[in-house]
Amino acid sequence: MRCSTHPATSAPPPRPPPTRRPKGEMSAIPLHPTRIERLTAWLGEARLDCAVVFGADHVNHLAGYSRYFGGPAAVVVGDDGSRTLVVALDEAPIATEISSADEVVPYGVRGFGLDLDPLGSLIPVVAGLDVVATSHRIGVASELPGAEERFALAAASAELASAAGALARIRLRKDADELERIAAAYGLCWTAQAAVAEASVPGATEIGIFSAGEAAATLAAGTPIEFVGDLLSGPNAAEVCGPIRIPGTRPVAAGEGVVADLVARLNGYWGDTAETHPVSGAPEVVAAREALYGILKATAAKLVPGATGRDLFAELNACIRETFPGGEFPHHGGHGVGLGSFEDPHVIPADETPLEAGMVLAIEPGVYFPGRYGARVEEIFVVTEGGGVELREAFAGSGLPARPDLDPSRSVDA
Amino acid sequence: MRCSTHPATSAPPPRPPPTRRPKGEMSAIPLHPTRIERLTAWLGEARLDCAVVFGADHVNHLAGYSRYFGGPAAVVVGDDGSRTLVVALDEAPIATEISSADEVVPYGVRGFGLDLDPLGSLIPVVAGLDVVATSHRIGVASELPGAEERFALAAASAELASAAGALARIRLRKDADELERIAAAYGLCWTAQAAVAEASVPGATEIGIFSAGEAAATLAAGTPIEFVGDLLSGPNAAEVCGPIRIPGTRPVAAGEGVVADLVARLNGYWGDTAETHPVSGAPEVVAAREALYGILKATAAKLVPGATGRDLFAELNACIRETFPGGEFPHHGGHGVGLGSFEDPHVIPADETPLEAGMVLAIEPGVYFPGRYGARVEEIFVVTEGGGVELREAFAGSGLPARPDLDPSRSVDA
């Protein structure tokens, strides 16, 4: 296969200038039936009267409710699309304020940590809702261990069917409000990358640089976030990631690269990024990063409906191996992002699922030279008929964090 | 019931000076058979030939192996106590280096994120181990969804029994190496509390103070940690915690209190702390904090074998209500800490489990005045015949972070 991107020694393709659009308007992102419409369509096809789902991601997906330290919760979706959110009593006021559910119903008693079996209170309340009690056939899905089995006992007169597969398929395509949440988390990752770029100076430690990124993202969010990542420097960066090598107290030196793969969750949706930052000039690392960025853009252009992770991986992998003789590429080429930070679809040889418009994928080519250095870049795209639309560009002008200046040649002349 | 601690207006009891002991020696902590000895004793009683466990906490508990971003893993414990750790191929070298297993066996192929069903590689390797393949009766426990069912198919010729209950009981008592890990995480929490004390100045935001604590703990760890917490100021602090009120961009003011409940995980074990920090003098908050600290110490003295969470809660609750007429106390009085940050036993009305020596509990009295302020303190103790031993005191002189100066009268005169 012919690698159509730039070799490591050429200049990177110029980044397109961001297009300014009115706040909140997204560019070139297709509309499809909303997830509630898709769910009620499925309920109809499967001849189900309602869907009952348990667990934080399901509740966030179907009722837009996500909470730091929330108790077990459930959502019931009627075949007319009406949504009832069931939350712990103490959460009912905030759930009423921030969720998109039509109704919020509390369970349990006041107080935190006093009841070791909150499911014992949650499940009877769910089973007792009119919409549930009058249903003959119910679709059920749960992320809470044991909830499905206990609900089956509480709703013994109804026939139950699994809604897990249907919901997994529905989650693959993101609605506009979900894209906005993913973009917000993605923006925090780029805020962190800007802080990492700033902190990547000779003598700084890996963990110090990591912490600077985490603090910047947290302060930008204005609320605690989940933040995880790889941050490896110099020859460590050739060892790719967490299972093998974890950010530590190694001080970085001039001429080295810092690979930062930063992942953040805000309001229950994830963002994911990778950048390779030079420390006071690192021409070899900068050139590798530029070539990888070209491969990233070439792959992104192929994010169209019908493409598969298998084919995308084959092309991306071939380009990396052609561009970097002797370099290793021992990981996937990307993955879905949404309620999960590493979800379907995947850019790997084994994924033959055809992409659909509205899917969201991170693309992340990398290359690793053992004992010398590693480089990786990563951006997130929405699948459209015209190819992947980078998520910051999709929301350009909407008030989300702007693309920060992360030109890796920045510090070469510094 | 008579409340034997100090009223809110009195001075707090003086803190005992730390006793210096040789590095690594613990004071007054009882020895019991190690968890591997207790597990093999149970295997003998239950006439099982080995135990097969899946999942990160089980693996850390029985083989001392914890990894940021680790793949699915398993441990097999023979009836002689021998331990075989099974990890993803890329993790085998680091697992051999850092785990306490007798043998490390790899599964799968090189690379990250390429295999969407690593259990499909892990389970045959586990089932094929000599110790497993020659076992007639096997105890099984899993934290990985589906692993137990799939193992049952792979080991179809053996009779399987659940080891989940036995392992849950074994986890209640901590061995010396586990106490050391909990103490290390607990030390990070106190490092974060010291940073929070420093940052709690007029005009600082809740999220800024939270972030300062997180950064201090991360830098002290020298590696990424899991860090969660409540940090609420002024009247917000009366709303107790996460489901209702989350740290935000509220600036704190002189005369207010900052309640910081900070929880950190290092090497797979958790620490947990709470403190109430005054902002430039807050006499009412300081007095409440001092009275709560007296109640904390009185409760800790009762952490002896045979005591129950029910009785401890009753006394702690009565003391809070007697000391603070009109104040609310809508949460538990404490909980176990170890591989979980909120595990058995619990200081709540419903927990009648008799405590045993070697159990580890956080005790956390609080009081909340809606619209005005809240206060909470929390320390971790090991249950001993002589009462609870505070974890920093147990490890005094061992190189763990010393008790920081968090005297809340500190900033009154500043």
Helix and strand topology:
The structure is a homodimer of 414-residue chains.
Chain A (H helix, E strand, L loop, with lengths): L34 H11 L4 E5 L1 H8 L10 E5 L4 E6 L3 H7 L4 E5 L11 H10 L1 H4 L3 E6 L4 H8 L4 E4 L1 H9 L3 H24 L6 H16 L4 E8 L23 E10 L2 E10 L4 H18 L8 H15 L10 E3 L6 E4 L13 E4 L2 E4 L3 E4 L2 E4 L6 E2 H4 L20
Parallel strand pairs in A: 1-5, 3-4, 5-6
Antiparallel strand pairs in A: 1-2, 2-3, 7-8, 8-9, 10-11, 10-12, 12-15, 13-14, 15-16
Helix pairs in contact in A: 1-7, 4-6, 8-9, 10-11
Walk me through this protein's architecture:
2 copies of one chain form a homodimer. By secondary structure, chain A is α+β, with helices and mostly antiparallel strands. Chain A folds into 2 domains: 35-171, 3-Layer(aba) Sandwich (Creatine Amidinohydrolase, Chain A, domain 1); 176-394, Creatine Amidinohydrolase. Chain A is built from 12 helices and 16 strands. Chain A has helices spanning 35-45, 56-63, 92-98, 119-128, 130-133, 147-154, 164-172, 176-199, 206-221, 283-300, 309-323, 391-394, and strands at 50-54, 74-78, 83-88, 103-107, 137-142, 159-162, 226-233, 257-266, 269-278, 334-336, 343-346, 360-363, 366-369, 373-376, 379-382, 389-390. A 6-stranded mixed β-sheet of chain A has the order 4-3-2-1-5-6, with helices on both faces. In chain A, strands 11-10-12-15-16 form a 5-stranded antiparallel β-sheet. In chain A, strands 7-8-9 form a 3-stranded antiparallel β-sheet. In chain A, strand 13 and strand 14 form a beta hairpin. The relative contact order of chain A is 0.15. The model of chain A is unreliable at 6-24 and 409-414 (pLDDT under 50). Chains A and B meet through helix 9 and strand 7 of A and helix 9 and strand 7 of B.
